[in-house]
Amino acid sequence: MKDKISLLSGSVVETGTKTFTSINPADTSDTVATFAHASRDQVKVACERARKAFASWKKVPAPVRAGIIQNWGRLIESNKEALSQLVSREMGKPLREARGDVQEAIDTCNFFVSEGRRLYGMTVPSEMANKECYTYRRPIGVFGCISAGNFPVAVPSWYFVPALLCGNTCVWKPSEDSPLTSYYLTQLLYKAGLPDGVFSVVFGSGAKGPGEYLIDGVNDGWIDKFGFTGSTEVGRHIGEVCGKNLQTPCLELGGKNPMVVMDDADLELATTGALWSGFGTAGQRCTSLGNLILHTQIREKFLGMLMKKLAAMVIGDPANPTITYGPMISEKFMNDHLRNLDKLVSKTHKLLTTQNGRITEKNPWANWVGESPDDGYFCFPTIVDNVTPDDEIYRTETFGPMFNVMTCKNLDEAIRLANGTGYGLSSAIYTNTPASVYQWKEDINAGMTSINNSTTGAEAHLPFGGNGKSGNGSRQSGVWVLDQFTRWQSVNWDMSGKLQLAQMDTGYVSADLEYRIP
Ligand code: UN1
């Protein structure tokens, strides 16, 4: 049944001939599933079904829609282990993290269930008698979404839970790296009681495939709202297409996330935080550490401690609970990483790590766990020192297990370096001086910042998103995301039985402005 599926749309399931396989990146002999690239016609069918379903879905009372979200959350929870195992098998993140990925979706459902009983508008006084004013949140229509493979459960839930709750219908193009996870996540949504046509999945590639057709669908009038998590380059293109059509997409793009360690920091904490920020998920989070900015006073001591912890780090089999990270998501991500090492690291830089690139049986990582590293796409952790603001590597997102080291003399310089990359997604500072924290919070140009914590690990009910090249100012999660999936409508209801003119037929009383206190 799951073979060669290209369109999944409730009762309508279609297959395709141009197939692609999902492969376990920790063991490439393990083919997880074969799906097919959806055709342009199939994307159109999905959008048409969504358009048709919108008329009735928006009329379903919000608490009833929220009931389906609640069911979805419960179903995800009761399938948490199987789904987590599948996430880990399909895209390679450690099982512990895969469980977190799934938990984030459960949290998101839980958060939004009661929002179905709010979705508050306001009653607003009128400036005229016998007239009432109100505001309502109205759904937007058909929501088209392209998501990435690094968070195949959490990030889609950030989009679809609020989108559906608010009364929109959806067409989803999930990552080619996690089709089976997307398939089951969608099956659980159907089992939760979602009416036919409200939610469809089109499988396959982005470029020259369903992703591209879905973006074109904005021009074709198929889509009313777009959501995208992925590269800045593709995000910019989506922004252009949506802008031309007077739409504002939700764009969650790249990052070059800085972490500053000041001279008063707890170095034990900061070294652990830096390693996790840089190498958790093999650096394949948009919130992963990009530039580590060390105060000159603690630089040498910090690096000594860091390299010691790095040497003890365990890499390998995603199911092994002791690992920090497993394989790259796919061969493409590994090759991109290898190309970055080749292209971006220059003679002026100093590699603090002696082994870089691909981990193999011939060139193994000392603390390797699992079968042969040759079975999968495993890479060494890389730390690049002596990076300056003039270097391309300083401002280029690398999305792999590598980060840069830079040095600063004071907080002003640290903030300049942190803000200079053009990105502004996540960030972190380690310091114990309240005044430094205060200045940092005010001056760091990032959508998210951590004090004495990792650059990664945003919680499900806080606004998530970035500035600059990291997005277009949209935010996901928490109550703030409601503004992405609804439009405000103001209503004024006149019961006076006559045409009352705003600003003119008011009962404003004039003051005696000549009066002066004696
Ligand atoms: C992403 O990398 O696209 O904050 C999302 C974090 C996770 C989500 C990352 N909760 O690291």
Features:
518 residues, alpha/beta, Aldehyde Dehydrogenase, Chain A, domain 1, Aldehyde Dehydrogenase, Chain A, domain 2, 7-stranded mixed β-sheet, 23 strands, 19% strand, globular
Write the layout of secondary structure elements.
Layout: E1 5-9, E2 12-15, E3 19-23, E4 31-36, H1 40-57, H2 62-78, H3 80-91, H4 95-113, E5 123-125, E6 131-139, E7 142-146, H5 154-165, E8 169-173, H6 179-191, E9 199-202, H7 210-219, E10 225-229, H8 232-244, E11 250-252, E12 257-261, H9 267-279, E13 289-295, H10 296-311, E14 315-316, H11 331-344, E15 350-351, E16 368-369, E17 382-385, H12 392-395, E18 402-408, H13 411-419, E19 423-424, E20 428-430, H14 434-443, E21 450-451, E22 467-468, H15 482-485, E23 486-494
Parallel strand pairs: 7-8, 7-10, 8-9, 10-11, 12-13, 12-20, 13-18, 14-16, 17-18, 20-21
Antiparallel strand pairs: 1-2, 1-9, 3-4, 5-6, 6-23, 15-17, 19-22
2-aminohexanedioic acid binds next to loops.
Tell me which CATH architecture of the largest domain applies here.
3-Layer(aba) Sandwich
CATH topology term of the largest domain: Aldehyde Dehydrogenase, Chain A, domain 1
**Strand order across the biggest sheet?**
2-1-9-8-7-10-11
Structural class: alpha/beta
**Ligands, ions, cofactors:** 2-aminohexanedioic acid
Question: What is the 3D shape?
Answer: globular
CATH class of the largest domain, anyone? Alpha Beta
Q: Kindly estimate the percentage of residues that lie in beta strands according to DSSP.
A: 15-25%
Q: What count of structural domains?
A: 2
Total DSSP helices: 15
| Rg over alpha carbons | 25 Å
Give me the count of strands: 23
Q: Give the oligomeric state of the chains in this entry, treating copies of one chain as homo and distinct chains as hetero.
A: single chain
Which residue ranges are poorly predicted, with pLDDT under 50 across at least 5 consecutive positions? none
Biggest sheet, in brief? 7 strands, mixed
Termini separation comes to 90 Å
